[in-house]
From TrEMBL:
Residues 3-136 form the DUF2231 domain. Keywords: Membrane, Transmembrane, Transmembrane helix. The keyword tRNA-binding does not apply. This is DUF2231 domain-containing protein. The chain crosses the membrane at residues 39-61, 73-92, 112-130.
């Protein structure tokens, strides 16, 4: 009996939290503090859950099957580490006296760069799972071939 990998189950939390934090910051341009006030908590939860997901991913790296495109694995890891760094930086630079401040130009640039890395890294992670079968049990059907 094989175990279910933990990393794919955990990644949904930082993806959702960071995406919603970016949306809250952008919505804050029109709706003010009512919208952007949410981003601090979402960023903090996203960063914490990303750290847990990254640790799980590192432990599961040794289970990547032979023949999997390791170059894609390294790109996925690199992009997600950059996204993590950008969103952590966004959180820390947005605080003053431990209180979240209204997003400024730097905040929105960090949001945009982090979101781009998040989407690109997430796309690579999805490709690894759904196209190359990384994380799939050996007794499952093979991934469908792409023509």
């Amino acid at each position: 009996m094989s175990r279910h990998p933990l990393h794919p189950a955990l990644v949904h939390f930082p993806i959702a939290c960071w995406s919603l934090a970016v949306a809250a910051d952008v919505a804050g341009l029109w709706f003010g503090e009512t919208a952007w006030r949410w981003s601090g908590g979402l960023l903090a939860i996203g960063c914490l859950m990303a750290l847990i997901a990254m640790i799980a991913g590192m432990f599961e790296l040794s289970h990547v099957p032979e023949g999997a495109p390791m170059r894609m694995v390294w790109w996925h890891m690199g992009l997600m580490c950059v996204a993590f760094a950008l969103f952590c930086t966004r959180l820390v630079t947005g605080l003053e006296n431990m209180r979240l401040q209204e997003p400024d130009t730097l905040s929105l640039l960090l949001d945009a760069a982090g979101f781009i890395c998040l989407m690109a890294g997430g796309w690579l992670g999805g490709t690894l799972v759904y196209h190359h079968g990384v994380g799939r049990s050996s007794n499952q059907n093979p991934p469908p071939s792409v023509k």
